[in-house]
Amino acid sequence: MTLQKNESLWRKVERILPSVTKPGRYVGGELNQIVKPWDSVQTHVALVFPDIYDLGQSNLGLALLYDILNQRDYIAAERAFSPWTDMEAAMRQANIPLFSLENKRALSEFEIVGISLPYETIYTNFLNILDLSHIPLYSKDRNDDHPLVIAGGQAVYNPEPVASFVDAFVIGEGEQAVLEVVDIFQKCESGHLSRQELLSQLANIPGVYVPSLYEIDYHPDGRVANIHATHPNASLPIHKRLLAELPPPMTNFLVPNVEVAQERVSVEIMRGCTRGCRFCHAGMVNRPIRERSIGDILTALRQGLDQTGYEEISLLSLSSSDYSQIVPLIQGLHQLLCERNVNISLPSLRIESFSDELMDELQSLSPGGGFTIAPEAGTERLRNIINKPITDAEFIETVRSVYQHGWQTIKLYFMIGLPQETLEDVQGIVELSRAALREGRQAVGGRAKLHVGVSTFIPKPHTPFQWATFTPPEKIREKLAVLHDGLRGAKIKMTWNNPEASLLEAWLSRGDRRIADVIFHAWKIGARFDAWSEHFDLEKWQAAFSAADLDPNFYITRERTLNEILPWDHINAGVKKSFLAQDYQWSVDGRIRPDCRQKCYACGILSSFGELRLAAPNGGWKCP
Amino acid sequence: MNNHPMITRIRVDYSKGEALRFTGHLDLQRLWERLLRRTRLPIRHSQGYHPRPRLNLASALPLGFISDAELLDFWMDESLSLAEIQTRLTNTAPPGLIIHSVVEVDLSEDSLQSQMIASEYEIHFFDDQEEQLLSKQIDILMSADEIKRERRKKTYDLRPLILYMEVIHSKKGGIVLRMRLKAEPNATGRPDEVLDQLGFANTEYLVRRTKLILGER
Predict the structure, then answer these.
(1) Which domains are assigned to chain A?
(2) Contact B2/B46 with Cβ under 8 angstroms?
(3) Over 80: is that where the pLDDT of B64 sits?
(4) Which residue has the higher pLDDT, B1 or B132?
(5) Nearest to B34 among A17, A308, A368 (CB)
(6) Cβ contacts from A onto B, under 8 A
(7) In this structure, what are the phi and psi dihedrals at residue A282, rounded to the nearest 5 degrees?
(8) B64 to chain A nearest CA, in Å?
(9) Other C-beta atoms within 10 Å of A3: how many?
């Protein structure tokens, strides 16, 4: 008999579902879900997004891996998400372990548990997932009976804060590496190799980092003294994984039966960015730039609409207006929208790259929508420092043009707490915003609206600002006060990040391996859903630092010297440390580094991956 | 617009099964919009920037209930054979939604909601129930002159909304509670309210709607 669903577990779940909010999050059964008979495959992989279904089911990365793994008939990939707090309480009370949505199997029944870590404030949820699954939290406490815990995602370019909880990381793009992990797993399983041998075999896969095969030594003051490998298979550095060319986009979208954050057909039109904004983690770690063809994009959108019946499409990329064929693409989209009666949600766009022609096309594509511009800093001086060079005059020109082309609402994004920022730069945000709204009033009168979104700068690993300090919350509040005062009465809506939440993100993104104990203690005393303002509790984290006997300020308020060994130095994200250091120096000098599509500045991508590029003859890889 | 010669109005009789038990009314409406888009039938859409398929569900089914007998109307800009329509709906329906039949109805007919008179339900208990005890409770309930209850901060009388109620034996053994409740605008009985009155929490049973009764009031 083929065993399918775990019926006894499911009967317990069904009893508690009517008592929790939005029970449809926990039942699966969606259109295009893939359920394989449990006994029909050799390897079961649980794909976990450690936040609620509403967010996780909207995540394209996880959907991509789900599709890739399930295409193999010897693998079943099933989904699991964090239960919301009421469901967690009900599950713990009824002694129900975390289960997959497809076959309703406890996560401990899977051979591999793959965790998506797209941002740092998800780490306590990750631990909670393991705990709800009765899987030991620390990697060292797991044995041959436990699943292999793999993690990947944008946050793990600095894997160290969660290194103690993860058996192996996939650093970089996972499309190929996940299959290689499963293949090695199956070979080791059929050869009856021990868990330790399996881990050392996995370390042979390019892009896979097995933290237990490395040791970190520290100076007495807490700085990293040395990172060394303890096994011959453990390479130093670990190069991120990279695809030479993007495969045709995934079109097999699941259609949720309850409302989730994003319900649309999303197609990634390109990966990577050539702009080189010095604060931008995504722009640095996702190099090089690789484009998909218009044909691939339009075909995928059509297939996605056929599969889902969705009423909206969207294009994903870091900077869609930099797509080399953007105008023909938009013309193709026009036809698609009319043909299918669907809408488009416009992606983020860059101000430097706008032509009148593009604005005309965009306006007719999505009439009535808002327009987003991200100058990031208030003065030309500071914009040069962060390498987002645009003059005040160019900015005003763009704003005028946007309003004149028919948009009534513009949203501006800025950061505060940037390196070398003064209160004059903050005041510059006020001046620029007021000037922008004045342009709007002149163009469309009282209907003109302006929103200003302000976020806190966090010096992220693998960026030219990785040596910089994080501005403490009390100083951020002073800057916010300047903005509040300056924008008072201006009829400009301003939103901003909680500075304490940014503080947590700074600790977790810049931490070393010792931070694991802080995360553990925070989880132990109840930290959950730290990315949710109603759950975030700074005091728990302060208590956790004390319990782990670590100084929180050590990680954020100390400008690091260029020769310090950084906790993530053994990870090569493609851009060389020497290049980042040069760029940091250039920022101090106010020197701009132009877009690298025209001229190569030898960031390190081609020296590390030049051979790989030969495998991509179709021209999608856009380095000069 | 209703006198356009090509416009047709199609009524679908369908089941909402266990896989969709926790899909609420608004979500079900969106699920149907997407199902209709997937069929690529010449569905009639609303006007405006964000056109949506025009559709009309007979009666909201509360979260957690399943049903053997739901009704929905949608409109098409061209006429097509009913067999073709049914095939396309069946092929694009998500798990848990079963299409039983499609018929064409007159464009001038009143909306489904305004034709609703009553719904019939079967209640399946997860734990064994004492038949005599339950029957006695029901007798007490049905012989009451009024049953004052509060729902969403409004007081109302549940008694006149219960048209009948009885205990029957299910094929699998065990007992099933069957009831017919009034379902008129502003006078709709909810099985979970009846069961709460009988002392059952919503984690103790599964409600299955078995029939929608349409007619003139």
Answers:
(1) 7-228 (3.40.50.280), 368-514+550-575 (3.30.750.200)
(2) no
(3) yes
(4) B132
(5) A308
(6) 79
(7) -60, -40
(8) 7
(9) 12
